[in-house]
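Subgroup meeting minutes
Present: P.N., E.W., G.H.
Scribe: E.W.

1. P.N. recapped why we're keeping a running log of single-chain structure predictions: easier to compare across weeks, and new members can see raw inputs and outputs side by side.
2. G.H. added today's entry (299 aa).
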Amino acid sequence: MKRYLITAVKGIAMGAADVVPGVSGGTIAFMTGIYQELIDSLKSIDYNSVKLLLKGDIKSFWNHINGNFLVAVFSGVLLSIFTLARLMQYLLVNHPIPLWSFFMGLIAASAIFILRGIDKWRVSYFISLLVGVGVAAWISLVSPSETTEAWWFIFLCGSIAICAMILPGISGSFILLLMGKYAFMMEAIKEFNILVILVFLSGAVIGLISFSHFLSWLLKRYYKQTITLLAGFMIGSLLKVWPWKILSERFEGIDYPALPSQFESITGASPQLLFAVIFFLIGLSIVFAIEIASKAMHK
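Output recorded in log:
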């Protein structure tokens, strides 16, 4: 029981990380020493486990998938997400510039942290990085600030965002930002919108089971190409979290990055430059503090 309570606390830390774009739940899992068990447990949800379940052998099925561990982790994750969603929604509405600046610092530092793990650069690593930057920048500039709220898209968001939880360096909230559904999901969780939450969770379950094997293979076979691609996504997505945006006059619903002075002159609102710099630096500091703590724990 003590072990599973500790695991649940680690799940709470993972959930807190995944609510905030830029910090990865996978990184927290790695730092706290449960990453490999998490990947192995998810991979164990396979054809053999389904056969055990259909035969009614619940005990063997539960042991096969390491059920107690998974329940402990994801109970902590869900508790953390539901607790912090209300705070995130409040900050998005009332203090958007400091919050986006904070997210920007987190994402920039996470990209730096990932790239520092590449000791010898190869052409394939540069290509992966540039592809990631290009794709994320393109998505950030052309995707509308509000995307469709159709159930199929919410399901798709869940299935893709959940994969980020098991990837060190990239968070599920980051994916939701790129897909234009971060604020929407924070609002749904805050208001406890059961239908939206269930559709999202259904996508998450399917995505987790479907992609965990592929992601595990990808990280083992092309680890450095994968993490440089992820770092590229983060660098390109800085356009998406840029604190000062103005609406496009040509394309409805799409906003573009602007200089603080342009933002002030067009919107008439204060750019809050000092707060933006402070919260950007706080975001940077948190990621590097996690790195220091991780090194201390592994000594």
